[in-house]
Design brief:
about 350 residues; alpha+beta; Pdz3 Domain; 2 domains; six-stranded antiparallel beta barrel
Length: about 350
């Protein structure tokens, strides 16, 4: 009987140990689930973008000589570079030609514009003036409705071919403002030459569109351009898990990019000056240390924006900017910031 009692106590004790172990394992399992990492295909390949703006983008002023005096109706109306004309007399314009046509048709009658300024719409009255030289009615504006450019793919999500690139937005070269994009197409691209960077003179990857449409751009944000490829492109760097900003550290890393031999390669860099609270596209400093890359480009050049950055076997971010005073050095963005903007852009 005593042996049975002792055996019963041992069984009860083992049962308590098992329950305790199970209780301990619950938060551990939850932590493991929280630490599951998304795996992405690493980019490094060039891509082209053709896009149309959402409305007519104002990029600058152009004074008009009218009545022997220099006048600027747009400036007088309070319009600013970076504003976007969303409606002309209640009609959504399809291109810049409609602004000229509306001015000509009005014959000096003021135009009522709906203008998007820093995300908010407002109504503006614009009164074109007749140009002394040709008698045409002018607004005093430089405007655009489309554009094109080449950058670098940062990552592709294998399951649906969604991609992110550039690491910053497509901005207007005149005003520096983020282009409000209505729609855009991804184009195949090849790098045809390299202009080396120098102090005070940023370098450039010179490329051209090499194929037809290969995908669609859905969103232009401060933290990258996002869309979908029609077919999965060839990505030599393969797939890697994402690396969190809390894990990023000063020291050695690599970037992937494609130069004028059109072969995607990995080059050595150093990461420093990490700002973990940064929510934009300048989160840490990138310094090129690879002698081959320095010899070919002088460091970071235009067109390398979006080049994926890998540290400790994880995709941690992308190159975004170069310092004009030091082409060997620039900035990078956390991959988390790009993914957060991608999710927001997709409405998820």
């Amino acid at each position: 009987m005593k042996k049975l009692e002792n055996r019963g106590k041992r069984v009860a004790f083992l049962a308590l140990l098992l329950c305790f172990a199970l209780l301990l394992s619950l938060p551990l399992s939850a932590a493991v689930r929280r630490e599951e990492r998304e795996v992405l295909l690493v980019g490094g390949i060039p891509f082209g973008v053709r896009f149309f703006t959402d409305g007519i983008l104002i990029v600058g002023y152009c004074d008009v000589t009218s009545g022997g005096k220099a006048k600027n109706p747009a400036r007088s109306a309070g319009l600013q570079p970076g504003d976007c004309i969303m409606e002309i007399n209640g009609h959504h314009p399809q291109g810049v030609a409609e602004l000229s046509e509306a001015s000509h048709s009005a014959g000096g009658t003021p135009l009522t514009l709906t203008v998007r300024h820093k995300g908010e719409d407002k109504q503006v009255t614009l009164s074109p003036v007749a140009c002394d030289k040709d008698g045409q009615w002018r607004t005093g504006l430089w405007v655009r409705d489309s554009g094109a450019g080449i950058g670098t793919v940062t990552f592709v999500r294998e399951r649906d071919h969604a991609f992110g690139g550039l690491g910053h937005g497509i901005c207007d070269g005149e005003s520096g403002c983020l282009v409000p994009m209505a729609r855009g197409s991804v184009m195949g691209a090849e790098i045809g030459g390299v202009k080396r960077g120098a102090v005070g003179a940023p370098g450039e990857l010179k490329g051209h569109f090499a194929a037809g449409k290969t995908g669609t751009v859905l969103q232009n944000t401060d933290c990258g351009v996002f869309g979908y490829f029609g077919e999965l492109p060839a990505l030599p760097a393969g797939a890697l898990p994402v690396g969190y900003k809390k894990e990023l550290h000063d020291g050695a890393a690599t970037l992937w990019c494609t130069l004028d031999d059109n072969v995607t390669r990995e080059y050595g860099i150093e990461i420093s000056d990490i700002h973990r609270s940064a929510t934009g596209n300048k989160c840490f400093t990138v310094t090129v240390t690879d002698m081959d890359l320095l010899e070919k480009t002088g460091g970071i050049v235009q067109g390398m924006s979006g080049s994926p950055i890998v540290q400790d076997g994880r995709l941690v971010g992308a190159v975004t900017h170069v310092l004009i005073g030091d082409p060997t050095t620039g900035y990078g963005i956390f991959i988390e910031n790009m993914l957060a903007n991608m999710a927001e852009a997709a409405g998820k």
